[in-house]
Design brief:
This protein is α+β, with helices and mostly antiparallel strands. Helices cover about 40% and strands about 30% of the residues. The chain folds into 2 domains: about 80 residues, PH-domain like; about 45 residues. The radius of gyration is 20 Å and the shape is elongated.
Length: about 150
């Protein structure tokens, strides 16, 4: 049982579950490709290029592990009573927003976000602001919230 299902209230139904976009993994993939290309150069030709490639490979692996943990530890859902936003595997950040008290929901999309259909959702509740990046199809997420409100 996942976090969302475990925390449903009596009579509460899941209406929409948002996913993280694959673009979350683009930075680690690019770092790994560049690092592999540079590290594959023979040390005899340029030792500096080879070791720079190994360093970039290391950063690419660290970034990949970090983003895999983000993917595993994230859950975003709209129910008929509230919006549930949770991130984290080791430490947890969770926002339960009661639909009746929804103050603000902002969506930010860069040019790449518009092209590939992902964005950052920022939720404002009682002066506290929480941002959740790389949400796939953020406009649908917002639409589902608005349908449940009204």
């Amino acid at each position: 049982m996942n976090y969302i299902e475990a925390n449903l209230q009596p009579g509460e139904e899941i209406k929409y579950v948002a996913k993280l976009h694959f673009f979350l993994f683009m930075q680690p993939i690019i770092l790994l490709l560049i690092g592999a290309f540079l590290a594959s150069s023979p040390k005899e030709i340029s030792a500096m290029t080879h070791y720079a490639g190994l360093l970039i490979l290391f950063f690419g692996l660290v970034s990949l592990v970090q983003r895999l943990l983000v993917k595993i530890g994230s859950a975003y859902a709209v129910t008929n009573k509230r919006v549930i936003l949770k991130t984290g595997v080791i430490s947890r950040k969770a926002v339960d927003l009661v639909l009746a008290k929804c103050e603000g929901l902002q969506i930010k999309q860069s040019v790449l976000g518009r092209i590939f259909n992902f964005g950052t959702i920022t939720v404002t509740t009682g002066g506290a602001t929480s941002s959740f990046p790389f949400i796939a199809n953020p406009l649908r997420f917002k639409k589902e919230i608005n349908q449940q409100i009204g």
